[in-house]
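Might I ask for a little of your time on a matter of protein folding? What I wish to show you is a protein chain and, alongside it, a tokenised description of its three-dimensional fold. I should value your view on which stretches of the chain appear to form regular backbone elements. You will find the record immediately after this paragraph:
***
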Amino acid sequence: MNRALELAQVAGDAGEVPVGAVIIDSLGNLIAEGENRKERDKDPTAHAEMIAIRSAAKTWQSWRLDKCTLYVTLEPCPMCAGAIVHARLGTLVYGVDDTKTGAIRTVINIPNSPASNHRLQVVGGILESVCRQQLQTWFAAKRHKHK
């Protein structure tokens, strides 16, 4: 999660919402990482999780990431939650709940939905206060800048 926080900081410094993600294999090796890049790439799908999942699939030469764990600083949105399920990720670990668009446990629960064809282990609240503070600080600075 610490590496995901570092990536989130890079994204925030670049004007993106500060979210970072990493994927590790079953041996604990880092195989992929991503940071929010929507603004820089002009791509609505360029969320940290999506970038990390794409990179991991290329590294593993497989779309099935069932032996992998995704760490992300913010609870994934519906798009990312869908990609997590479709990638068959084994475990998701996230930092802070997203009370507006969280699609893992907070607003909706895509992994446990009857429409989901894959179940994964989910652990939330890891370094929660650090992840929350990073986001709150970034949004406060953005609001202050626009005044």
In short: Residues 128-145 form the longest helix (18 residues). The two ends are 33 Å apart (CA to CA).
